[in-house]
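Section handout, structural biology tutorial.
Before the tutorial, make sure you can parse a SMILES string by hand: atoms, branches in parentheses, ring closures as digits. In the record below the ligand is pyridoxal-5'-phosphate, and the chain has 400 residues. In the tutorial you will relate the predicted structure tokens back to the input. Do not try to memorize them.
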Amino acid sequence: MTRSLVGTPALFIPGPTNVPERVRSAIDIPMEDQRAPDLPEFTLPLFADLKKVFKTESGQVFLFPSSGTGGWEAAMTNTLSPGDKVLIASFGQFSHLWVDLCQRQGFDVEVVDVDWGEGVPVERFQEILAADTEHEIKAVLATHNETATGVTSDIAGVRGALDAAGHPAMLFVDGVSSIASIDFRMDEWGVDVAVSGSQKGFMLPAGLAIVCFSQKALKAAGSATSRRCYFDIADMIRTNKDGYFPYTPPMSLIRGLRASVDMLFEEGLENVFARHYRLAEAVRRAVSAWGLSLCATEPKWHSDTVSAIYLPEGVDSGAFVKYAYQQYGISYGVGLSKVAGRVFRIGHLGALNETMILSIIGATELVMRDFDVAFQTGSGVAAAVEYLHESNKNIRDIAA
Ligand SMILES: *Cc1c(COP(=O)(O)O)cnc(C)c1O
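Predicted structure of the complex:
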């Protein structure tokens, strides 16, 4: 191991993401009294502002001390009963893990297997929903951004499929690696539960599941008989309404969340989405200039938060990722499960700017050069610089 001991480690995994200095300072505070009389002055406006991040007026946001996986569990156990049927597509490690959680929770899971590199099969879903005339399917589950493959799905399309089939099932969305980075519209898309987590677009350490329930999902909680205790929203509803929590809240993270939401609003959500698009597009231009291809098979699946990149046949992406870490302190996402050894992933979400994205594109060229991957040195950097330069001039058109 010859890695230099100086310089900043380059964290380009798709979560946890870089925590901005302002958020770190907000977290680094003396411990405080979670029953203080003035706490609601802080918590109630935060709950209200979080609704704006989900783009909902009528929904309710809950903060659970857990990673995103706990958010899935909260979504499922609060709204459904054992044996209830759910429809989900599996097309990557995260959608696969959600299937696994549903099975272990005792739901009747109808899984549509889709090739890795594609997303939620909207037309197939519509056929299945139309054929379910008894309305046995209680919830349709969609992974908005599959972090293993860098694939973003069309949630408005899934809503369209439910409506076209006249089906009353609830719509649950895993937005852990999309919300606060890629446009998400809870109310407009008729989403009933949206799950996110602190360590991706929210630019915080791991430790908070940020979950939003629609009125329909809140109502479903009244009759859902799945066993739940820690993740029971009833306890949250009872205490959150006065600005408190049913058990010790991770106040440091919640203070950090306030700073993160402030930063998102100061930049403007639409500008945050446009920035993610531009930086992702710079990576995609570089990948294409290198002569490599993405795991996402078509532009309509391109993710603005993570790119999974195939290395040429014969190059072990696991060894590539390990070498980059040991030699240069670069952390890439590894290839998971079906694409292990084939892809490496560049996470480009959260607190990221042009300088950082050009540094990882340039450093990736160095790693490829060391690894004898055939490509034209400088081609990816050149393509990214040209694109960033041009798109800066047209930033309003791109955001539109
Ligand atoms: C990160 C992630 C999760 C949650 O993982 P945790 O490690 O439990 O936070 C779920 N779904 C997707 C799509 C993710 O990217």
